[in-house]
Write a structure and sequence with these properties.
Arp2/3 complex 21 kDa subunit ARPC3; SpoIIE_N; 16 strands; single chain; 5-stranded antiparallel sheet; about 60% helix; Threonyl-tRNA Synthetase, Chain A, domain 2; alpha+beta; membrane
């Protein structure tokens, strides 16, 4: 059913693509309905049997709080089998040790009457079930005692106790019964819900008290069988918990079974300790535990009977289908089956999400194709259509009232048409053509040549304007198509990341844990998220010691040695609860580091400069150093340049291609304002792993790289963004070296020497003369020299950004610990 609804959501408008998938989903949905119907019948039968046993169950041989609580929860969760459960509980009460059928029937009737009254006022809810059960039990029991005039303080206390037990059992059943009613879609139960389920099963077992088959007591067999199941699934904690709960409830049902609590708890713990073997080892643990305590507690007959009961429980346990054990394991937290079910659910969610993202990516790709088809196909026919429309307009205004119309257009059509096209060609090449410049041969062909010339010049002006706007629309369509294609590519990459299978890295986690614990570190949890080269991500929760900084001094160097790649601390978060734990995320250390410095001044010493700069790590292993100069000066120019940098940074961080990001930025700046506002963009994208640098220079001044005593100029001929609708983007790629100093500046600094000087040579000499390697000092020194050259006068906004690339040196060297081997990385699964 879930697949069909998913197909309905995803398939709108894509019937051709999803037709086969829908057919498969429909058949799977039909099959799923049959399976659910079969399973629902089995659970319904089980609930009816449970109702029968709970109708017979009693506490202290006089209290029966189970049946009404069970029926009340069934009323809200499985109303379709309510009457069958009621009949089963009624039949069970008839077979009880002390007859309580009349009380049970009366309590059910009172409960239903109160419930119907609440439904009439639309106030019925499952949360009211415990109160309704308490009220029904208390009122019926109190009324019965008052009728027989047998009300004492003791009987009043017992009535209250039974009512309170019914209330508590209702709360417990509300948590446990949904496991059997197919209303839970996930296989994850809390520990409290597991305990409620155990209490429900133990309460059902009390309905078998007094059933004996030879030397075997049925409730003892079922209790030990239950212990074996939970011990195999959940280990010693669950085995002991089941033993305590079942032993307690059985001892309440029969005072002679008080020793069962310790016997079952010890047997469950011993059986759970041996769960790593198989069913036989678990059965051996339970037999050993029950036999040991039987020798101390009972007589020889009791020991023999207890042994027979254990053997019968073991036989049932060994005959239990594996599917039942696996189903139970899915509900128990911490088991491999539960983890696998959670991983399967997460995988389904991931696949569905990736499918939706891929679908949207395909939508954007199709839209991009459609826009490109609109701009490319039938271009020639459109031009002929426009020329024909132009000719018709001229003919209607000049030839329509001419007496030679039939002679020109009917008898000499091709000659007249050629004459018109020649005249249009002449006007296209020379719009200011006058009447005196009309060739004599034209006058021989047409008697209204001057009038045709005037009309054609007017129509050509309209035609030219129309063609201009059509070209604008075509260029906009091209841009939109490119942008849609870029978005499609980004979403496709995202879908690939989502669909990437989670890898089982348990061995690597265990290897890291053993290595760290051998050093004496207290490690709480280790989660290896990724071991891809250059994209390592490991999260460790450990107990830290203030002032020692084990993360950077010990853990990171040791991880670098184990993995074979430099690992550094990405972020660290101390827990606020005061437990002494911190969460540390380790990741791949960059091969290079970038240090930056900035210096600038506004024109005339003003407060706002029209220049903006940005130095930011984009998150994909690249570091961006950007500089923008807005048109003019002041606050408005600064806003324009800052906007350009912010938009470009966000587009690049989203994963968009550099050229497409520049074109998108250009279109945004053109649409933002009707005024002629533009901005230069000078950006260097430095790869932190291999130092390859891509320069995007849009209308900006040259940048310079100082490598030792050599200065290299980087320039490109591109107009600023926001002027033309279509710009050509030239990217310059240069590999940098460790120790290189990158200098980027606006025109206020580059144009400082004036027009009579070779600016590039002058700036190279200026940069060569600065001997400092600190980026901030370098920027301050260069700006100061420009000030001195202009005698302290600031003629334009001036900004210089200096970046220095250095090979990263780890703060702490790696070290080898005896017995630790290099980790083998798993293959990436896509």
């Amino acid at each position: 059913m879930q697949r069909r609804s998913l197909g309905a959501v995803m398939g709108g408008g894509w019937s051709g693509i999803w037709q086969k998938a829908k057919a498969g989903v429909h058949s799977a949905a039909v099959e799923n309905r049959w399976v659910q119907a079969f399973v629902a019948k089995k659970w319904s039968l089980l609930l009816i049997v449970m109702g029968f046993l709970l109708g017979r169950a009693m506490i202290l041989e006089q209290l029966s709080p189970f049946a009404l609580a069970f029926i009340a929860v069934i009323y809200f969760t499985r109303k379709d089998i309510l009457h069958w459960v009621g009949v089963a509980a009624f039949a069970g009460s008839l077979l009880a040790v002390n007859g309580n059928t009349g009380y049970l029937v009366t309590e059910i009737i009172v409960f239903l009457l109160i419930q119907k009254a609440l439904e009439k006022y639309e106030r019925s809810d499952l949360t009211l079930a415990p109160i309704l059960v308490f009220s029904s039990t208390f009122l019926v029991q109190l009324f019965a005692k008052l009728v027989v005039s047998n009300l004492t303080w003791y009987t009043l206390m017992m009535i209250t106790v039974e009512a309170l037990l019914s209330l508590v059992l209702t709360l417990i059943f509300v948590q446990a019964i949904p496991v059997f009613t197919l209303t839970r879609k996930n296989y994850h139960l809390k520990h409290e819900e597991i305990i409620c389920l155990i209490i429900l099963l133990a309460s059902v077992m009390t309905g078998t008290v007094g059933w004996i088959m030879g030397p075997v007591t049925l409730e003892h067999v079922l209790s030990r069988y239950l212990i074996l199941l939970f011990a195999l699934v959940g280990g010693a904690p669950f085995g002991a918990s089941v033993g305590v709960v079942t032993g307690l409830i059985l001892s309440l049902a029969s005072s002679s079974a008080i020793y069962q609590m310790s016997l079952l708890a010890f047997s469950g713990m011993l059986a759970g300790l041996l769960k790593e073997g198989n069913r036989l080892t678990v059965a051996f643990g339970m037999l050993l535990g029950s036999s040991i305590l039987s020798f101390y507690i009972g007589s020889s007959v009791d020991v023999i009977n207890s042994t027979w009961e254990s053997l019968v429980a073991v036989a049932l346990f060994l005959l239990t289908p594996r599917s039942l054990i696996l189903m139970l394991a899915k509900y128990v937290p911490g088991t491999q089956e539960n983890l696998k079910s959670q991983q399967d659910y997460a995988k389904r969610v991931r696949d569905v999400t990736a499918g939706r993202v891929e679908q949207f990516s395909e939508v954007f790709r199709q839209l991009a194709r459609s826009f490109k088809q609109l701009t490319t196909e039938d271009a020639v026919s459109r031009k002929e259509e426009d020329v024909g429309h132009f000719m018709n307009a001229v003919t209607q205004k000049t030839c329509e009232s001419c007496w030679k119309k039939s002679q020109c257009w009917d008898q000499k059509f091709y000659q007249t048409y050629t004459f018109m096209t020649d005249m249009m060609t002449q006007i296209e090449s020379k719009e200011t053509m006058t009447k005196k410049q009309i060739p004599p041969e034209w006058k021989k062909v047409c008697i209204r040549t001057e009038q045709v010339l005037d009309v054609m010049k007017g129509q050509y002006s309209l035609y030219k304007n129309d063609m201009h706007w059509k070209k604008q629309i075509m260029d906009s369509r091209h841009l939109v198509a490119d942008q849609l294609s870029g978005v499609s590519q980004v979403m496709e990459d995202l879908a690939k990341e989502i669909k990437r299978e989670g890898q089982e890295l348990f061995l690597q986690e265990e290897q890291i844990r053993n290595a760290l614990e051998e050093l004496g570190l207290s490690i709480h949890t280790i989660d290896v998220i990724s071991l891809d080269e250059g994209n390592i991500e490991i999260e460790i929760i450990h107990q830290y010691t203030k002032g020692f900084d084990e993360c950077r001094k010990i853990i990171a160097p040791l991880l670098s040695e184990i993995i074979g790649e430099n690992v550094a601390v990405m972020r660290e978060e101390m827990h606020t609860r005061g437990e002494g734990y911190s969460t540390v995320v380790f990741g791949s250390a960059k091969e290079y580091e970038v240090e930056t410095g900035v210096a600038g001044a506004a024109k005339g010493g003003d407060l706002f400069s029209g220049d903006s700069y940005s130095t930011v790590e984009l998150g994909n292993g690249k570091y961006a150093v950007a500089l923008s100069d807005g048109m003019g000066n002041g606050e408005r120019a600064r806003a324009e340049s800052q906007t350009a940098l912010n938009i470009l940074q966000q587009l690049l961080q989203s994963g968009m291609d550099e050229k497409l990001a520049i074109k998108s930025l250009n279109s945004v700046l053109m649409l933002r304002s009707s005024d002629e506002m533009y901005a230069t963009v000078d950006m260097a994208l430095i790869d932190m792993y291999n130092a390859n640098t891509t320069f995007m220079k849009i209308g900006s001044t040259p940048s310079f790289i100082k490598r030792g005593s050599e200065v290299i100029a980087i320039s490109a001929n591109n107009l600023p963004v926001g002027i033309l609708s279509e710009i050509d983007v030239d990217l310059v790629s240069i590999p940098l070296q460790s120790g290189d100093i990158l200098v980027m500046m606006t025109d206020g600094i580059y144009d400082a020497p004036g027009h009579a000087v070779n600016k590039e040579m002058w700036m190279k000499r200026m940069i060569q003369e600065i001997d400092t390697t600190l980026p901030q000092d370098f920027a301050d020194c260069l700006l100061e020299r420009i000030f001195r050259h202009h005698h302290g006068e600031i003629q334009d906004d001036m900004t210089v950004v200096v970046a220095r690339l250095e090979k990263r040196q780890p703060e702490w060297a790696t070290f080898r610990w005896p017995g630790i081997t290099r980790m083998e990385r798993p293959k990436t699964v896509s």
